[in-house]
Amino acid sequence: MIKVGVLGAAGRMGSEACAAVDGADDLELVARVDVGDAREALEAADVVVDFTHPSAVADNLRWCVDAGLHVVVGTSGVGEELLDDVRGRLKPGQGVLVVPNFGIGAVLMMRFAAQAARFYDSVEVVELHHPRKADAPSGTATRTAQMIAAARAEAGVGPGPDATTHDPDGARGATVDGIPVHAVRMAGLVAHQEVLLGSEGETLTIRHDSLHRSSFMPGVLLAVRGVADHPGLTVGLDALLDLD
Ligand SMILES: NC(=O)C1=CN([C@@H]2O[C@H](COP(=O)(O)OP(=O)(O)OC[C@H]3O[C@@H](n4cnc5c(N)ncnc54)[C@H](OP(=O)(O)O)[C@@H]3O)[C@@H](O)[C@H]2O)C=CC1
Ligand SMILES: O=C(O)C1=N[C@H](C(=O)O)C[C@H](O)C1
Questions:
Q1: How far is CA 198 from the centre of its chain?
Q2: Is the ipTM of this complex over 0.90?
């Protein structure tokens, strides 16, 4: 039995993760921690899953790592600086998985986008989410843009053509590693992303839709079961999916 603690247990993802862990024969939910609860309850766990808030994840992650726990981080907003700090704190054999998106289709969408990116002049990312989401762009969009940018740099592809010289309201969106990223927030949505690629005479659109938060749970359980077998810091679910 793997003992699991959930941080952000009262939230949309945390409550879904608690139910998924509760329903798994090989996992035991030993701690549900949310705002105002003592984090010490997590010390009974082998693995902690964090679904809290971009403003809380750094402190939680450092605390869990310093407590010697394996950690699966689903919360968005984990930047390079925090990743470097965590690497320096890890004990031998300790595993941390930072997963921008647990959806299997989302993992594939990111990989397909990176694969396609070098063949097109233009590429832009459009992420679409429910209006209660705290951060923009999403962690998935940020990761996708980073992967696309790395693939284009490796292939020696320059920036997409763009004649815009006047954009006082920021209509062209944000740029992440040089890739334009646009964020939509809309009632009725859950989590969606399109990667648009174009060259003279053709376009390719790669789209993924999470229609319910249950779509993330197979990935969450895979990460919980696999984190102890992946010592060190790993970003993305790819390493656990045997994709190559
Ligand atoms: N990796 C993935 O596949 C996915 C990642 N996410 C990410 O997960 C995160 C949570 O999303 P979601 O569940 O929708 O958000 P919610 O706001 O529904 O849930 C977050 C929960 O965490 C609580 N919380 C905030 N700070 C702390 C803290 N310091 N300690 C313990 N609990 C805390 C919140 O309490 P309160 O409301 O009182 O502040 C709330 O109950 C986001 O960053 C989101 O982007 C979401 C979906 C999939
Ligand atoms: O807040 C959400 O809902 C989601 N957050 C993650 C992100 O920021 O990418 C994953 C997914 O998009 C849902």
A1: 26
A2: yes
CA of 13 to the centre of ligand 1 (A): 7
Q: Cβ-count burial of 131 within 10 angstroms (0-12 exposed, 13-18 middle, 19+ buried)?
A: exposed
Nearest ligand 1 atom to the CA of 135 is 45
Helix (H) and strand (E) counts for the chain? 6, 11
Look at residues 15, 233, 214, 51 and name the one whose alpha carbon lies nearest to residue 139: 51
Tokens of 69: 């726990």
Contact assessment for residue 7 and residue 52, using Cβ atoms and an 8 Å cutoff:
yes
Does the bond joining 131 to the residue before it have cis omega, within 30 degrees of 0? no
Q: What tens digit of pLDDT does each residue of 65-74 get?
A: 999 999 999 9
In 90-235, alpha helices (H): 104-116, 139-155, 217-226
Query: Residues 6 or more apart from 135 whose CB is under 8 A from it?
Result: 54, 76, 77
Which of these is catalytic: 129, 182, 192, 208? 129
Give pLDDT tens digits for 209-218.
999 999 999 9
Strand partners, 138: none
Ligand 1 mean position, distance from CA 99 (Å): 14
SS3 assignment, position 49: strand
Question: Which three-class secondary structure state does DSSP give residue 199?
Answer: strand
Spatial separation of the C-alpha atoms in residues 24 and 217, rounded to whole Å: 11
- Bridge-based pairing state of the strands 232-235 and 95-98: parallel
- Is 133 a known active-site residue? yes
